[in-house]
Amino acid sequence: MTETSGSLPRTVDTVVIGGGLVGLATARALTERGVGVLVCEKEDRWAAHQSGHNSGVIHSGLYYRPGSLKATMATQAAQELPELCADWGVPYRVTGKLVVAQRDSELGRMRGLLARGEANGVPVVEISPDQAREQEPHVRCVGALHVASTGVVDFTALAEAIAARLADAGAELRLATKVLGLVREDGRVRVLTTAGEVVAGHVVNCSGLHSDRLLDKQTRRQTRIVPFRGEYWALRPDKTDLVNGLVYPVPDPDLPFLGVHLTRDVHDHVHIGPNAVFALRREGYRWRDLSLPDLADALSFPGLWRMAADNIGTGLGEMARSAIPALMVKAAQQMLPELTRSDLVRHPAGVRAQALARDGKPSDDFVLHGDGPILHVVNAPSPAATASLQIGQRLAEMSLDPTHD
Questions:
Q1: CATH number for position 195
Q2: Which pairing describes strands 124-127 and 277-278: parallel, antiparallel, or unpaired?
Q3: Which phi and psi (to 5°) does residue 258 adopt?
Q4: 291 and 281 in contact (C-beta within 8 Å)?
Q5: Residues 170, 243: one domain?
Q6: Interstrand relation of 11-17 and 196-205 (parallel, antiparallel or unpaired)
Q7: Residues of the chain below pLDDT 70
Q8: What is the largest CA-CA distance in the chain?
Q9: pTM of the entire structure?
Q10: With contact defined as beta carbons under 8 Å apart, do 354 and 226 qualify?
């Protein structure tokens, strides 16, 4: 585990807060530009939260609006990341994936997704049900898309590889160092941490689930991070032959999630999920994980209540799938009819840092807030892990030149 020893430097060019993939990639991009960087991560390891608790999928860029940064970055990352992982010794696999329609009424949306993928430059083709069964014999569908560039990667190993290269480049890396506050003085920033104080010319806040806590009070009144837990199941080891690669349903355009999907990771575990339920703690990976301050912070924000009112049916359905495993099985059986409850075991959950506006609208795009020498990454949704290196380059440019768009 790569970490710099000794006391904090008294001054540094830039402090990056957060040792997930976006924070480490931003630090790498700054270091490549000759900037002195200090990375502060409150946990004792890299990628401890969102970066290390996800499905491990290298996203292709299929779902994003043509011409958007998300589409451009994901498509580029899907082409470049496998080669980088091979060079760095990071476990990965380019598997391709199927997006399957389970009923005729979904074929129109499926073909709309095909057109979007083609516009983004994604290698996607429509295939017949028979062709889909050649790749996934146990999957049922009436039509499918095949996306060749989708793959899987060990994102924790990728974060550790970036950290190792940062250390070689002379960056200061501090684990178990929590940032407590930011104080602007004379065009610079005093960064208050549990390990002492450092003065920086610039700060990039990539603290994920806690990113809004460093915002100024006025901005934080309008935006709040609300945690949503994504719960997964896994196939028993003797049942993993039911899924060869990655299988996704045609997504519901009214929902910000992709639906229950099947994912074989680089370690040959097959995950089924996720759902999305409100977490009672920002790092609440289980129902019993409760933080009264976190809960009070979320419940005091009007946006949470407005979002709940607008999505009450969906929310109750997600909670039911969490409480009643048979409902998750039923959702997965739409694609995998042979699946039974006895085939599944619990798998660790993830928690998504969802930025909510005061009007209850969840953001499905990046939310950045510039405050002089401080750049806050308030929301970094998928494909943030896949495209972390591309995002890091852009954040580095924005930090060094606040006029950069």
A1: 3.50.50.60
A2: unpaired
A3: -90, 0
A4: yes
A5: no
A6: parallel
A7: 1, 253-257, 402-405
A8: 67
A9: 0.94
A10: yes
